Amino acid sequence: MFRRSAILLLATAAWAETGSRACAPCHAEIYRKYKQTGMARSSGRTGDGLESFANVTFTSAGAQYRVTPRYAVEFSHGDVKGSRAMEWFIGSGAVGRSYAGFVGGFLFQSPASYYSARKAWDISPGFRTKPFVDVARPIESPCLHCHSSGAKPMKGTENKYSDPPFAEGGVSCERCHGAGEEHVTRRSPIINPAKLAAARRDSVCLQCHLTGAARVARPGRGPGSFRPGDLLNDHITVFVWSRPDPTDRAATDHAEQLARSRCQQAAGDKLWCGTCHDAHSGSTRPPAATCLQCHSPHKDRSADCFGCHMPKGQSREGEHVVYTDHSIARRPGTSARDRVLQVFRGMKAGDRDWALAQPSRSVPLLEKLALNGDAAVLVQLAQQYDAAGLGAAPYQRALKLDPDNATAQANLGIYRIRAGRVRDALDLWRSAFDRNPSMIGAGLNLATGQLQAGDRPGALTTLGRILQFHPDNAQARQLLLTASLP
Ligand code: HEC
Ligand code: HEC
Ligand code: HEC
Ligand code: HEC
Ligand code: HEC
Ligand code: HEC
Ligand code: HEC
User: Fold this and answer.
1) How many CB atoms lie within 10 A of CB 474?
2) Most buried among 35, 70, 158, 221, by the most CB within 10 A?
3) How far apart are CA 50 and CA 46, in angstroms?
4) How far is Cα 457 from Cα 455, in angstroms, rounded to an integer?
5) 61 vs 485: CA distance, rounded Å
6) How far out from the chain centre does Cα 161 lie?
């Protein structure tokens, strides 16, 4: 017994993180320089003084918004009025900033963002198309794994976090160098990414700088389980399109673009992010001589290799980007139809990765894999079966393996109500909506089901909870009116 727990203790000690401040006494210059970078300042508690409060009002889809200097966003849409705290910022503000705030322990993205170039507040990227005030969009854990360090999601829910939601704002030293406690206290060696084998070295940057078209997590793993020194591919498999879609530029596509370059295809692992970027320096501009490591200068041209070969696009500002490729004249090879999904450079994908990356094309494969008892596979398979009304059995099996799966609960509820098993359906919807209040469908189904079953007090409680999270939901307001009628 004693031996076993001692071994366990050692295993945790090996991964103990100390936070960046512990590095400052001995690496003062790097610490000082790195703290100025966008990466180091990529998230934190609001109130660092970056924003201006001169332009605080905006409208979107008929709703009015106003941001207060105490970081609350007030909204009004018809007779719906309310306000939400913006306790956390995400993004250094080099281009822009998004915000998040807690409601009932759940963390939601703010509809208001700050746009640095215009020094103005406006609707968040991706929110403009919503015809209602959307204040219940979850901050999913990948968001915090890329923008903060030591993210603290709670088990069994989809966007519930401890408060504060992360141990350190921004990208900490240890996200690239691995846990440092042993190095700090005993001078044991610590990882230097540049000294790792190429695929492990690249993985350090790609954990955050590669989004791709699909990211498939290995069972029990995900972006949050990666540690420097690991192969990213042992945690997730990333798929990319064989050709870029000129209208779709993810903010995190640097690695994908680099992998398309003739330079990396020909030079291979000699070229990586670190060839051109010093991760500790705030400047993104590589030294002029960088290209000359491998190329000789043109005789007839200036030395500004980057200006011609790596030109800047328009500053990316979410939906405010003017990037109109009106490709009515279809240039051969650029249309989306010609694209196929590929595994990202150097990664390997097994059957399971392929099946989860494109589930609608992989039903026979999913059926085969489902025999292994794999909750992620079962939920995907069930969703493919939904159109034919055959998803109940795989949802049920998925829930045996992963009782917290809110998607499976919400969808199985629909099969249960159709089969007349009202109580089961209501229990499933209640559980899904408790775990993830962004699942408005489960909430509305629950309220409707309760009303139909004659449980008016229950329905009123549910509707109150829906409106706490989704104050501008027309269906819930309508149901509340019906339920309140004598
Ligand atoms: C008590 C002083 C001290 C503290 C605190 C400290 N280091 Fe070091 N670190 C050193 C010394 C001395 C070296 C150079 C000798 C060596 O390589 O072991 C070093 C070397 C390194 C290297 C280079 C390793 C290599 O193989 O190239 C990295 C990376 C590093 N430290 C990161 C960190 C990080 C990250 C932290 C904070 C978690 C940290 N250090 C905290 C003293 C310290
Ligand atoms: C834990 C996630 C994470 C890791 C690991 C990471 N980055 Fe970043 N990086 C970011 C985020 C997030 C930003 C955007 C920061 C912002 O402006 O909010 C960024 C921005 C940058 C920038 C722009 C300048 C700056 O500092 O903001 C460069 C250059 C960069 N990263 C290079 C690298 C390189 C090279 C590596 C690997 C050695 C790496 N990054 C590893 C998340 C990460
Ligand atoms: C896979 C990692 C990843 C995820 C997930 C991710 N980001 Fe980012 N984000 C980045 C990187 C890297 C950049 C730097 C820009 C670039 O690479 O072009 C960035 C840039 C940004 C910026 C602009 C910062 C600036 O430079 O001013 C904002 C704002 C932002 N992200 C918000 C979010 C929010 C909110 C979420 C979650 C809903 C999110 N990001 C999810 C990696 C990520
Ligand atoms: C985004 C990834 C990233 C972050 C964050 C980061 N480093 Fe590094 N660090 C690197 C890389 C890559 C190298 C190797 C540079 C090279 O030799 O090309 C390096 C090298 C080092 C070295 C050894 C070489 C040298 O320049 O002395 C030390 C020490 C170090 N880092 C300390 C730190 C400390 C302290 C922090 C936090 C304040 C930090 N690093 C944050 C990526 C990172
Ligand atoms: C690590 C070495 C390396 C670095 C650094 C490097 N390249 Fe290359 N690049 C190559 C190789 C190898 C090729 C392929 C040469 C060939 O096919 O003959 C190439 C090809 C090219 C091409 C031809 C592209 C095409 O489609 O045919 C251009 C342009 C280019 N590089 C520009 C640059 C510029 C500009 C920089 C600096 C921003 C740079 N390279 C940095 C190795 C490198
Ligand atoms: C051949 C050189 C080269 C390589 C390799 C390279 N970059 Fe860059 N990167 C640049 C240049 C040039 C800029 C623009 C610098 C400027 O003008 O500020 C840039 C800018 C950036 C920026 C700032 C946002 C933007 O798009 O302007 C980020 C983030 C970034 N690079 C990340 C990466 C990552 C991650 C990798 C590895 C996958 C990488 N870069 C590899 C040359 C390179
Ligand atoms: C004024 C714009 C401009 C500048 C500055 C520039 N290039 Fe080019 N480069 C071009 C064009 C255009 C081509 C294509 C030439 C062709 O197809 O005849 C090219 C082609 C290349 C090629 C492909 C092989 C070749 O020689 O045809 C390489 C490699 C290259 N450039 C590297 C560089 C490097 C390194 C620098 C910086 C020292 C640089 N370029 C500066 C415009 C520029």
Assistant:
1) 12
2) 158
3) 9
4) 6
5) 31
6) 14
Phi-psi map region of 150: left, alpha, beta (phi>0 left; psi -120 to 50 alpha)? left
Cα–Cα distance between 43 and 228 in angstroms, integer? Answer: 21
Q: What is the Cα 287 distance to its own chain's centre?
A: 32
User: 107, 101 in Cβ contact below 8 A?
Assistant: yes
Residue 309 has pLDDT above 70, yes or no: yes
Sign of the Cα torsion 218, 222, 223, 229 reads negative
| Residue 130 token pair | 């919503």
Tens of pLDDT, residue by residue over 431-477, are: 999 999 999 999 999 999 999 999 999 999 999 999 999 999 999 99
**pLDDT band at 252, cuts 50/70/90?**
low
Give the position, in ligand 2's atom list, of the atom nearest the Cα of 272.
35
CA dist., res. 333 & res. 284, Å (int): 32
Check residue 298 and give its pLDDT.
79
Instruction: Give the contacts of 335 (CB within 8 A, at least 6 positions apart).
Output: 327
Q: List the residue whose alpha carbon is closest to atom 31 of ligand 1.
A: 190
Tokens of 468: 């706490």
**Confidence class of residue 362 from pLDDT cuts 50, 70 and 90?**
very high
Cα 436 from Cα 412, distance rounded (Å): 16
Query: What's the burial of 476, exposed, middle or buried (CB within 10 Å: 0-12/13-18/19+)?
Result: buried
Please tell me the distance from the alpha carbon of residue 404 to that of residue 424, in angstroms, as a whole number: 16
Q: How many whole angstroms from 424 Cα to the centroid of ligand 4?
A: 54
